[in-house]
Specification:
The protein is an alpha/beta fold. Helix content is 35%, strand content 27%. An eight-stranded mixed β-sheet has the order 6-5-14-15-16-13-18-17. The model has no long low-confidence stretch (mean pLDDT 93).
């Protein structure tokens, strides 16, 4: 009987833990190394489209995700100043149309579901990776404390500033998009009662847009605001700022939106950068998944979904070819890279349409949304049935 493969995963975020769960379910020996002193996620919301829910179903945790999630009947796309409804995309029928609902969660809650599901994975916190070497028959990851781990495969799930990617392929050259983002999280009880907090909302205006949606069973409202500006260029998600910044930036926008801003006790800001998708994910027995391989702009809500799908496919290809792990990694990349690249490029295209400065261009876009909603076969506002239809568990049966 072949020895169970030993897999070291660098990064204990959603993608890393999803991969760990899929791997241990197939009998692998898994070590997860996380640089933070504890498994934790930033206090932000996350939209889980139907393909993400189907991937979580394949991992066996759909019921647990349903228990911590929020669902909404509509995504209301609205005009920035008047509040006019441009489109009301019905999410309530997604389960029937795509085989799974659209849900939203707090990132920390989803991380908790994944970590609670792990049984045999060795989780080591406070382990900051400094270098990874992919060799012909194994790989090694080295840490700031001087120790190292050898494994049959090392997986870089260490996010947008990936040390693993840098070790394997050199430093990347991210491009500043010219967009600044702010995020807040408001208790629903603190929101004025005349504001709709049960549905998702997308407010579209010149040079910017804002989304908000409920998380944690409807107890919290996640708010993310995007605006074209080069006044800030730091990529950190954890830089705190004053509420006066989004208030002044969106001062001319509809009051149903701007009255939400003071309801969040804390606000954070970051500059949005874009990266070219990698043409190669693996070197020797080291590979990448999630944002480390294909960081994407957030406009299609696919970052976490792609990472979870990656982890499931990686585990499945390893289980299929345990005696030829090099071939397993090649199969993983062959299956995942085209879909991930399409999501990266689709998110990039969506960014332009969200921030149209011209009034005529906005009217043309809004008419297109309305026609899609009424007559389109794919009546998702952004024509993303190709993303939502995908079922990673069925794909690999």
């Amino acid at each position: 009987m072949a020895r169970a493969p030993r897999i070291a995963i660098v990064g204990g975020g959603i993608g890393g833990l999803a991969a760990a769960l899929a791997l241990e379910q197939r009998g692998a020996e898994v070590i997860v190394c996380e640089q933070s002193p504890a498994l934790s996620e930033i206090g932000a919301g996350l939209n889980l489209t139907p393909n993400a829910i189907k991937a979580l179903r394949a991992l066996g945790v759909e019921e647990e995700v349903n228990a911590i999630a929020s669902g909404s009947e509509f995504l209301n796309i609205r005009s920035w100043r008047s509040g006019r409804y441009i489109s009301r995309m019905r999410r309530g029928d997604f389960k029937q149309k795509f085989g799974a609902p659209n849900l939203s969660v707090h990132r920390a809650d989803l991380l908790g579901v994944l970590s609670d599901a792990l049984r045999t994975t060795d989780i080591r916190v406070g382990k900051r990776a400094t270098a990874v070497e992919g060799r012909e028959r194994d790989a090694v990851v080295r840490f700031a404390d001087g120790c190292e781990i050898e494994a049959d495969i090392v997986v870089g799930a260490d996010g947008i500033h990936s040390i693993v990617r840098k070790s394997l392929f050199g430093a990347d050259s991210p491009r500043f998009t010219g967009c600044i983002c702010w995020r807040g999280m408001a208790p629903v009880d603190a929101v004025p009662p005349d504001i709709n907090v049960t549905d998702g909302a997308l407010w579209m205006g010149p040079h910017g847009h804002v989304v908000h949606y409920p998380v944690r069973r409807g107890e919290l409202l996640n708010i993310v605001a995007h605006f074209d500006s080069d006044a800030w260029t730091e990529e950190s998600w954890t830089r705190e700022c004053d509420v006066s910044e989004p208030m002044s930036t969106y001062a001319g926008w509809n009051s149903e939106l701007t009255r939400l801003y003071p309801c969040s006790e804390r606000w954070y800001k970051w500059a949005l950068y874009d990266r070219e998708p990698l043409e190669q994910w693996s070197r020797g027995r080291a590979t990448l998944l999630g944002d480390s391989a294909h960081a994407m702009l957030p406009y299609l809500g696919q970052g976490a979904a792609m990472a979870i799908e990656d982890g499931y496919v990686l585990a499945a290809t390893i289980a299929r070819q345990p005696d030829d792990l090099g071939a397993a990694l090649a199969a993983y990349e062959r299956i995942r890279a085209p879909r991930a690249k399409a999501a990266v490029l689709g998110s990039r295209a969506r960014a332009k349409e969200n921030h149209l400065p011209s009034r005529f261009a906005q009217l043309k876009r809004d008419l297109k949304f309305a026609l899609r909603e009424r007559f389109g076969r794919d009546n998702t506002a952004f024509q993303v049935a190709w993303l939502y239809d995908y079922d990673v568990g069925r794909e690999l049966q």
